[in-house]
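Throughout our pipeline, every protein is held as a single compact record rather than as scattered files. This encoding replaces a full spatial description with a residue-level series of whole-number codes. The remainder of this section carries one protein's record, kept here as part of the documentation.
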Amino acid sequence: MLMPSLKMFGLRLRVCLLICLLPGQVFFSGLYADETSASVKIQKEKNETLSKLNLLGYILTKSKREKEVLASGNDKAIIILEMARKHYETAKMLLDKGEIDSSNDEIQKSLQNISVSFRMVVDKEGAIELAREQYSLLLSRVKNFRELFQQLPADKVKGLLDAQKLASLIKKAEALYHKNQPKQALEPLLDAADMLERALSVARKNETVVYALEFSSPEDEYKYELERNKNYTLLSKMLLSTSPPENKKKLPLIRMLINKNEQLVVEAEKKFRNGAVDDAILLLEKGNKTLIRALRFGGLAL
């Protein structure tokens, strides 16, 4: 009977020891897990900082903008860029020492200096690209105005536009553009656009004056206003179909004005058929003003 008791006692002792040891194992496991988690976090922060430094290094040694600053002759910009380099070198040294937060502070200072330095020197490529876009939009506008002008009756536009000078300005602009001087090409093209806008505006005013003097009856005036409305409608729809990109947001409003005019014309024609000619004329005049608004939104001032 003694032997089983001893065995049972030994078993109980081992169980007790195991139970006593469990909290310690859990404690040390938790401690190890915390240390591992902290280590992973630090490594992640270090890797992120290293990535920033790599990017910074590229900007300061291999980027096109860095070379533009150095070649600019702008002493102040170059000095500030050198300050950025010093902050960059300090950031690298601090990271090697494991001082991640301090390294990030130096990176931030370096980036600020880079930003200031780069702003002090004109981005030539960016400026040229912007000028190209402006040239393209303006050329489209000139072509549209030219087409609109050519569609007007010859007797209404006689002497209003120096076609030779216009062609010369456009030719000069195109020559400068093809020499990779889009910024310089804008000046003659702007002059060409101004010439066309002024001519179109005067042509429309002349048209109104000439016809107004020739009215012999309300019916003639109605016919004139109706014809005028048709011309404006044609111009408005042409603007819709050939509108440059900068007018994209205005297109819904232009369409709305065209639709409003169409409703006014329907009412005017009904009034005319019923013998209310004066009322019909007023409706057409209102429609014409609506279309003029649409044309102005499209960049054609009449």
